[in-house]
Structure formats: structure tokens, C-alpha cells
Amino acid sequence: MEHRSRNGKNNIFHNDVLLSIAGKYGKSVAQVILCWLTQRDVVAIPKSVRKERMSENFNVFDFELSADDMDAVAMLDSKQSAFFDHRDPAIVKALGTRKIHD
């Protein structure tokens, strides 16, 4: 099983833009990301095994990002999946033939 660091993919939790926005609102980077997704009507399913992080993940409905902050986060999009290319025929085929285990 792949070990994931607490830094997230591509050190997302140490991104200067997100850290600045988080500081502005007194929130964590994870909360900023969840708020950004929520404001865009994107359903997010955050993952954590730590009780304090789970609680933090729910505490994103008491603030709203400004239009400028929403744009700043959107500018971070590299237009490339951090996981895999959904348009790659080999990836699509592998996903289509993957067996689901109970």
C-alpha cells in the first residue's frame, strides 16, 4: 500500500497561495480547499483517521471565500490530474477491467 504524507499530493498543504488565504480567514489549508469546492457546488469526501481533522473538515460552513480568493485558488489548477489521465485509453481500459473486491 502506498504511504501518503501529511503534505498531501504535490505538497498542497504547504502551498503559499493557500497558506496565505488560510491565514486571512483563520482556517487551515484543508478547510480553504473544502470551502472552495463547496462554493463551486462540488461534493467533497475528505479522508482522515484523526478525530480532530474530521472535526476540522466539518467546520467549513462558517466562512465564505471572496471572489478574489476563489480566483486565486482556481489559478492553481495545472489542468493535469494529480492521479491519472482520464483521457488516456490505457488508463480507461484498466479502470474498466478492474475487479471490485468485497
List the main descriptive attributes of the protein structure presented here.
single chain; 102 residues; mainly alpha; globular; disordered N terminus
- Helicity level: 40-55%
Distance between the termini: 17 Å
Please, what is the average pLDDT? Answer: 83
What percent strand?
under 5%
- Total beta-strand segments: 0
Rg: 16 Å
Largest sheet: none
Structural class: mainly alpha
The number of distinct helices, counting runs of at least 4 residues, comes to 5
Tally of separate domains: 1
Give the helices and strands as they follow along the chain: HHHHH
Spatial shape: globular
Structure description:
With 102 residues, the protein is an all-alpha fold. It has one domain (9-97). Helix content is 45%, strand content 0%. It contains five helices and no strands. Helix 1 crosses helix 2 (29-39). The longest helix has 11 residues, at 29-39. The radius of gyration is 16 Å and the shape is globular.
Quick structural summary:
With 102 residues, this protein is mainly alpha-helical. Helices cover 45% and strands 0% of the residues.
Secondary-structure blueprint of this entry?
Blueprint: H1 16-25, H2 29-39, H3 51-58, H4 67-74, H5 89-97
Helix pairs in contact: 1-2
